[in-house]
Every structure is written in structure tokens, then in C-alpha cells.
Amino acid sequence: MSKRKQQQQQSAAADESDSDVSLVNVDFDFFDPNPKVDYHALKRLLAQLFSADAELFHLEALAELILAQPLVGTTVKTDGIESDPYAVLTVLNMHVHKNHPSIKSLIAYLLLKSASNVPLHSTLQSLIGSAGITGSTHVGLVISERLINMPVQVVPPMYRMLADEIKWAIDDNEPYRFDHLLFLSRTYKLSPEEEAELIATAPRSSKRQRNAIDPMRSDGGVYSFHPEDEYIQKFASHTLDFAFSNAQPRDKESFGLDTGGRMMLVPAANLPPLIQALNEAYAPPS
């Protein structure tokens, strides 16, 4: 079942002046996950999401699990249903799939990473720990990833569709009645010198672009790859940034970014106001 086609407009400001602005019009098509054609691209997006620790989570099995529920979740493509997805958003019931190898490894990993944050760790133990995972309180694992050049304006419609699909699934007595949603995301860390360079090289002609740097930053020079994390955190009861277990040490001669992970636990009742906030923050250009 394909989604209703929606058009987003991506704009980029040139460095020289406010009057020199170029617009690139791109049609983004929203589709259900397609088990026949999406497997390899979805696996690549999952590898990007989990970065240095990707090998810990049985990505082949996780991709197959996502594709096994094609009526919940959305992919974004630009060249028809047979093309590779550039973005994905879905939710998995951690209780229903508690014995699935990828979910079992993720539960163990998230409990390990949360150990440094006692309130979050205690909450996760009660929800997805050995006792909680067999209880009646269900947690939805939200998986959201996209190519780095995808505009954030594709995010609000994806979340609107997800909320609708969860509602329809509940109406059909499917196991999507969640008490909490656990969002996974990625971060990167900049040194003070790199932060200063980032600010200095931000386009001077665009005050909006320069100001956009601050919302993506948290304590300790940690930045989010996904701007929407700023709003998800506002509706979260707990947030934790953590280091990847298999990340290689980075020194002054290293290339690339010092990346890490982020988990955000959101009460399911906060999903509607979160979507409203995303709609208001990331409306497509008119």
C-alpha cells in the first residue's frame, strides 16, 4: 500500500548574500516498507544509525523484522516504489519481539548503556528488563534514519502517518498499544576548536542558519545529526547520550566525526503534541 504522495521543497541559501538564494524542488514519495526491494537500502540505513556498534544487532534480522510489518512505518523515495528509500521511520513492539535476536541484543545494549543514568536505567529495567519485558506495559522502539542530505521537512508527515497507522493497527487489535516510545538517534561531538570553526564558517548571510547551530547542540559539545531531536527531548521523560562501544579513539590526525548514540524515552501520550511541535517547526517552504 503506497502512501499519499506529498511534495516537499528543499531550499539552500548561498553564502554570498541574502538575495542570492537557490531553490531545488524535489518530489518526495512516501511508501510503506517494501519487502521486495527495500532490504539492502534499509540495512544500510540501520548500519548508519548504529554506526560503530552496528555489528552487535543482527542487522539482517532487524531489517527483515521491519519489512515483516509493512503496514506500519514509512519510507521516503524520489524515483518510484522500486527505488531505494532515502529515509525510514517505523516502530517495533519490544515486548512482542522480545525473543527476536536483534531486539534481545538491543535490550541488553540499552540497559548496559543506561547504567550511568540511574533514573533512566531504573525505568528501563521496569519496562524492558527481565521482569518488565514480560509485563503488560509495552514499549515501542522507534527507528528513524535518513541520508544526511535529506531535508528535515520530510519528518513531520512521516510521524503523522506513523501515528495514524498505530491507531489503525490498534483498531484492528494489533499489538501497537504502547505506554512508552523509545527513540534511538545519533550524535557527534566537536572539540572547542571545531566548534569555533563551525560557528565561524556558518553562512554570514543567513542568520537563521547560524542560529540553527545552537538547538542541535547539547552539553559538552555534543550535536545531533537529526534536528528533530531538540523537540523529541522536550517531550521525553529521560534522555541519554552515550558512547559507542566499538568506536575507535580519535586524535588530531583522525578524519571523520566523533560519533555516539542517543536514547530518548517518551510517554506514548506525548506523541500527539510532539507531532504538532514538529509540524510547526518544520513546515515545508511555501
UniProtKB/TrEMBL annotation:
A cellular-component GO term for this protein: nucleus
Pfam families found in the cross-reference section: BCCIP
InterPro entries documented for this protein: BCP1_family
Residues spanning the signal sequence: none
Record key words, sorted: Nucleus, Protein transport, Transport
GO biological process, one term: protein transport
Main location: nucleus
Localization per Swiss-Prot or TrEMBL: Nucleus
Source taxon at top rank: Eukaryota
Function statement: Involved in nuclear export, actin cytoskeleton organization and vesicular transport.
Family: Belongs to the BCP1 family.
Protein name: Protein BCP1
